[in-house]
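Bench notes, afternoon.
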Amino acid sequence: MDELFGPVTAGQAQPKRSALTIKTNVDIKKRTAGSLLYAPFCDKGISVCIGGKFEFIAIRQLTDENALAFFDAIAPIVHRDTIDMSVAWFQSRYDKVGPGGTGADYINCPLTREQYDAFVDALLAGEKTEFKEWETSTPYFDGCLPIEVMAERGRETLRHGPMKPVGLTNPHDPTVKPYAIVQLRQDNKLGTLYNMVGFQTKLKYGPQQQIFRTIPGLEKAEFARLGGLHRNTFLNSPKLLDTQLRLRAEPRLRFAGQMTGCEGYVESASIGLIAGLYAAADARGTSLESPPATTALGALLGHITGGHIETIEQGSRSFQPMNVNFGLFPLLASPPTKKPDGSRLRGNEKTVAKRQAMSVRALSDLDRWISDHLRVPAAA
């Protein structure tokens, strides 16, 4: 197994390296990306590439692919005790139970039309991070578009996105409907930090503080972290990888983690897990059937290795990293229509019941796959 990272400094990742090296069937070698072009790194020629920030010159040479990176933006985090709760209020949209476990998991800041228009103007005019020449053609992960990029798509875009004013009532002025609402989500277990939902940004730090403090309730906000950009690197996996994450142009190379085009820590770890299982099967001279598409692991793997439908526009590339979501799962043959008491499901109840049924199906199918192919105790 190859680690395609930079040099390991003293104290960095040493315990894991030491633990792995005592396993006689694990061969750890550190290589630069250029080494991908040469002979297999270990005797059996099975290599799993898990790096996320190394040079892609070799992959470009092997695949003739150039679009291997995108920008991912992060949102600011605010200290809870600096939010003016005489203006803001706690409530989840439609009073849904959220990450905090209640129907009031978010802090909401209301804006009038005049305040919203001024906010959009400030976003558009604010000084932003300048891209280097080699970064100018790098696309964004669409689920993390900077808020100012959304604003550039139209003045009302934010009101129909992260600042939509629906499903919320301002208890300080319940008869007046806000024109737009900024939501902040609890970011730590202590409840001392709140993340500005959907406010990923490439604004420079000074303008961020000035502009975000024009939001009612955040006039005196102190930021634990300001927004920013980081550049991620990923493969055009549906084109470049086969169904077992092997590079079509060089099948001895298998890829794992975020670089395959998944988004999120759990998702990246899960693709690393299945890549390792595939590699282990290869080393034993056996085959491993892919996890069912009805499971989260199988659905995400399917998206990465072929479930995505490529755009038909000439020269464009539409594949983007994806978090696991119910939209990747096959539809239920018979979606639930009634509650346990026999009454009909209505509105959002249908969605909840459908997702619960898909989850039950996923666990059952995953247990069967584990039992049939891994010969270890079932997952649930």
